[in-house]
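All the exercises in this workshop are built on plain-text protein records. The record below serves as our worked example for the rest of this section.
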Amino acid sequence: MGDYPVRLTTKGRYAVTAMLDLAFHSQIKPVTLTDIAARQTISLSYLEQLFARLRRANMVKGTRGPGGGYMLANAAGDINIADIIAAVDEPLDATKCGGEANCQNEKACLTHDLWMGLSDQIRDYLKGITLGQLLEKHRVQEIAKRQDHDAHQVVELHRHSELVSSFNDLL
């Protein structure tokens, strides 16, 4: 597409990934950002920034204290992907001008309407997909279970290395 790339930055991708992880794992109890960070290999501080925005957009709700964490503020079937991306201030825009129609000498360029149409198609597509629909996909469930297992293995290895280190300190 040359000068008119359709970009979804890390912020939007990570927000959708974290929300899908949350939707999968918070069906029984709140989920900590530490757990999401471990499963999705996303920086905890970055997740904290994203979740502050998602909380302000009333997409997630937090619970403090032991057993606390985050849960979806609404049913997974009521949260669409476009809204998640918008909540973290991520534009879905294929135009060079950010939709302002000032792409060429402060006026619309020859292909402005084409790229605006593409932006609208992308937005409509993502509006039509909910977290609930993604959760129903067998492949998503398999991947979430694998990630959970992998993250658990990393935690166990870390605990083991801490025990070995403590034991060595005693010797």
